Amino acid sequence: MPKTLFALITSALVVVATIAFTAQSRAAELIYFGSSACLVCERWDEEVGEIYPKTEESQILPLRHEDVHDERAADLAFIKGVVYTPTFVAVEDGKEMGRIVGYMGDFFFWEQVGSLIKKLKAVPPKG
User: Signal peptide location in the record (predicted)?
Assistant: First the structure.
């Protein structure tokens, strides 16, 4: 009986540790706050939105779309001050790493995404 109890406690501790580690090491994401009423968002969707999932950047910083008018998802409650659309917020480990407010064309967007990626902890520096 004591061995069974020990095995049960050990298994429970492993599960708790795994959950805690997973919560701490959440992957980076690029949260796209947009709106169906946003003409600039439509432009971004046409110029970048369709190709973004096929890029190297999306492998490092996958895109997650949130409507700015909807209730904020619980795991994004820490993101404050999203006023303008589109706004892109890079998050890692439950923290904001940076943001892009607005969209002034694909060239500027890719430059800004590159700058956000450099701020991430999970991306080793190129050398």
Answer: 1-27
Domain ranges of the chain: 26-118
Q: Quote the tokens at residue 37.
A: 């009423």
* Tokens (6 digits) for 14: 């492993």
What is the CATH class of 26-118? Answer: alpha beta
Structure token digits, residue 95: 């923290």
pLDDT in tens for each of the 127 residues of the chain?
566 654 455 554 444 343 333 344 568 999 999 999 999 999 999 999 999 999 999 999 999 999 999 999 999 999 999 999 999 999 999 999 999 999 999 999 999 999 999 999 866 556 5
Note the pTM of the prediction, 2 decimals. 0.77
Decide the pairing of beta strands 29-34 and 95-101: unpaired
Q: In 3-state terms, what secondary structure has residue 85?
A: coil
CA 123 to chain centroid = 14
Q: What φ, ψ does residue 63 adopt, rounded to 5°?
A: -85, 140
Taking alpha carbons only, the member of 93, 79, 88 closest to residue 121 is 93
Q: Is the separation of the CB atoms in 69 and 41 below 8 Å? A: no
